[in-house]
Amino acid sequence: MRVILAFAAVYLIWGSTYLAIRFAIETLPPFLMAGARFLVSGTILYLWARRRHPAPSRTNWRAAALIGALLLLIGNGGVVWAEQRIPSGLAALLVAVEPLWVVLLVWARGTPPGGRVLAGLAVGFAGLFLLISPGEVLGGGAVDMLGAAVVVFAALSWAAGSVYAQRAPLPESPLLSTGMQMLAGGSLLLLAGTATGEWNRLDLAGATLRSWLALGYLIVFGALVAFSAYSWLVRNVEPSKVATYAYVNPVVAVLLGWLLASG
User: Fold this and answer.
1) Where exactly are the structural domains of the chain?
2) What are the backbone dihedrals phi and psi of residue 231, each rounded to the nearest 5 degrees, phi first?
3) Using CA atoms, how far apart are residues 86 and 254, in angstroms rounded to an integer?
4) 212-237 tens-digit pLDDT
């Protein structure tokens, strides 16, 4: 039951976060928004978990920092930045290449994919493109190639972080480990925002209620609930199975885009 609930959270909630990101960055700078999201959620998780678990070691922190950089700075940060240039539905569709990256990375680590894994990849991609074509997402518009390329690279980084996390020297507590990753990734995202001059563009008074509500949703549901579920899955389920969320998220993202934001 725990596995089913974790997959449900990742499948459904993360599918909705693409639109929430789009709303949040309408009036909030992307890297600063993402950094605040993960610093707040990471602080909550870390302080809660530390009440029951010992302090992590330096080795634990190094592993968490690397995972935070791969998953949150590059993986999530890349998608957040790219959604300034491409529709949220297209971003979710491009992230669907992640299962392929996972299979290739696991193969490079010495475990070749079996027939069932390859068949699953084929069925997943075929089903996704039968349900949602790029043309439907774009509505006949042109693709911003830079934005698309950044999302594909972000998916590769996310896959690398997920594969590494399966064997990384992390604390036994999933909540403590997740909080550490968020603190590291959130700090790096704030540094990215500083490096790109986002503080000069930050106007808290001018941020809309919709952006604030979207940020709150991303903190509570996208990070505290869904990312915690994902971190637990990565350590307890095969990476190729965990990555199947990338086939479901685009469907949720596109449906919500049509309903709430016209894509």
Assistant:
1) 2-261
2) -60, -35
3) 13
4) 999 999 999 999 999 999 999 988 98
